[in-house]
Structures are given as structure tokens and as C-alpha cells.
What does this fold into?
Amino acid sequence: MVIHATYLAQRTRQSVNWGDARKRVLKSYREWIRAAPEIQSMYSLNMPVSALRTKMRQEFERHRYVEKLPVVDMLLFQSHAEFQETLNYWKQLTHVLKYFRADEDPNARLPTNFMHGFLEGRN
It folds into this structure.
């Protein structure tokens, strides 16, 4: 399989208004949800497609209440970059599994403050 760097490439653009941003977010969300079976097979993940879709939804829900249009545009750009890297197989398995690490390992969460992290030996 030949991979072209321009596969899934899009031009970066800004949203005109909140309605436009909403359409772009929904389009991005649908792209991720539809690609879940392909991502599962590409990376040989040992989890059902429903778990992937749930995690994808959680990632979108995490930014649900962003109220600044430029921030939404930046999040859309990052989402599409992740999508392109994932489907072009530019990521390794560990990069994909990092999204599920906090669910599996309760100690994988970030420390509550700097001192706790420092004493645990985290950077």
C-alpha cells in the first residue's frame, strides 16, 4: 500500500461563525466515528469498536463548552491532524493506546500538583 502525504489533507481555515464551527465539528466527529473499525483493524487493537467510539466521543465531549471561536478552530485543526496521522499509519501502536492508558491504569493520571509529581519521580 502506497501512502501519499496528501491523503486526507485539508486546507486550514477559520470558521466564519458558530454555525459554521458546529458543522465542522460534527463533520470531524463523524469522520472519527466512521473510521473506528478501520483504526481497530489497522492497529490490531484488542478492544471492541464500541470502546474506540466511546473514547472518541469522550475526547470531543471534553471540549464541548469551549466558548472562543479561534480555540474551536485550533481544536479542529489538531483533531484533523490526529485523524490524518492515525489513518495514514504514521503513529505507532503506543501512540494510539495512550488515550486508553488512564482508563486501564489509575496511577497513569497526572499528579494533582507539582510537589506530588516531583516526589513520585515524574517529570
Notes: Residues 15 and 23 are 10 Å apart (CA to CA). The mean pLDDT is 87.
